[in-house]
Amino acid sequence: MSPVVSSPPRIIRIASRKSQLALVQTEWVQAELQKHFPDRTFEVHTMSTQGDKILDVALAKIGDKGLFTKELEQGMIEKKTDFAVHSLKDLPTRLPEGLILGCVTERENPADALVVHKKFKDKQLETLPEGAVIGTSSLRRLAQLRHHFPHLAFKDIRGNLNTRLAKLDAGEFDALILAVAGLQRLGMSDRIHQVIPPEISLHAVGQGALGIECRSDDPEILSLIKVLEHTPTAQRCYAERAFLRELEGGCQVPIGVNTVIEGEQLTLIGVVASLDGQKLVKDSIAGKATEAEQLGTQLAQKLREQGAAEILAQIFAEVGR
Ligand SMILES: NCc1[nH]cc(CCC(=O)O)c1CC(=O)O
Predict the structure, then answer these.
(1) Going edge to edge, which strands form the sheet with 175-179?
(2) Which fold has domain 230-321?
(3) Closest CA to 131 of 164, 175, 170
(4) Is 56 left (phi over 0), alpha (psi -120 to 50) or beta?
(5) 1-106+208-229 — its CATH code?
(6) What is the cofactor note (predicted)?
(7) CATH number of 112-195: 3.30.499.10, 3.30.420.10, 3.40.190.10, 3.30.1300.30?
(8) Active-site annotation, residues
């Protein structure tokens, strides 16, 4: 008999927001980890974030980085929880000291979707009538859609997916723009009326992927969560996040992206748009997928030379950082 008495393995505490989408995502991560590590115990700890509490102010006006993540991060820093599951697009590109993005999971379709009121079930984005009211809280969607469809009317909408869909059905809006991924994860794919192609609107950085954030000095957690990493998604998202970071945009800036990996090559397309949809600076870059972050940074520099900095300065002067 060995004289060494080992302590039982620690219980792993997962931090999550309380929204239905957040819980579906977190419970997926919990179930996957449980399959890989059947002897470990994973507990979910839910909390509300500022973004869940302030529902009567436009996102662009609150505009604070980390609106949906700060409380979860504080819990990890205080060691009340071990890692947090986020929609990667809600996670700022710069993380607090001591925390890192430890894992990026396989992405769902990252595109946006048009969801319509039933009176427009025979219409597409291209055929909606003059003045049709489109609900979105995203400056990125607003700017790009205004560019292509200046005859449509755009109105801010807040609240979780179910709240938004209820407002649409009640007739407050004629259509909404929502992420395909969120609708799919909540089992509401039947509400996707049209998937918006990248030629019309580029998606948000990190859209459709989950990001798992943890303490940088916790190798045990880092190695546990790494089993869920999907390398091509991670490379694409690292390129996208480097692009956004270099442009110093938070989540509430009209910046869109698209990425493709073919063989060893990653192609990144990026756009910076003015809020009125008048100015649009768009370009692309391709290179080795293993050098994803450099590609993102380089594309940001390219766009800045083409006028992106002026567009962003104008927006920050209007709505604040
Ligand atoms: N900002 C809210 C948010 N954060 C993540 C998703 C959808 C899922 C995803 O993009 O991974 C949504 C809803 C939406 O944009 O329609």
Answers:
(1) 153-155, 133-135, 175-179, 112-116, 194-195
(2) Double Stranded RNA Binding Domain (3.30.160)
(3) 175
(4) alpha
(5) 3.40.190.10
(6) Binds 1 dipyrromethane group covalently.
(7) 3.40.190.10
(8) 90
Which atom of ligand 1 sits closest to the CA of residue 108? 11
Would you list the domain boundaries of the chain? 1-106+208-229, 112-195, 230-321
Q: Which neighbouring-strand residues pair with 31?
A: none
Cβ atoms of 75 and 15 closer than 8 Å: yes
Q: Look-up: residue for tokens 């110093």? A: 248
Strands (E), 60-108: 83-87, 99-104
Q: Ligand 1 centroid to 87 CA: how many Å?
A: 7
Residue of 141, 167, 207 with the most ligand 1 atoms within 8 Å of its CB, for mutation: 207
Distance (Å, rounded) from C-alpha 191 to C-alpha 89? 22
Q: What is the pTM of this model?
A: 0.94
Which residues in the chain come in under a pLDDT of 50?
Answer: 251
**pLDDT for position 251:** 47
Instruction: Report pLDDT digits (tens) over 209-230.
Output: 999 999 999 999 999 999 999 9
**Complex ipTM, two decimals?**
0.93
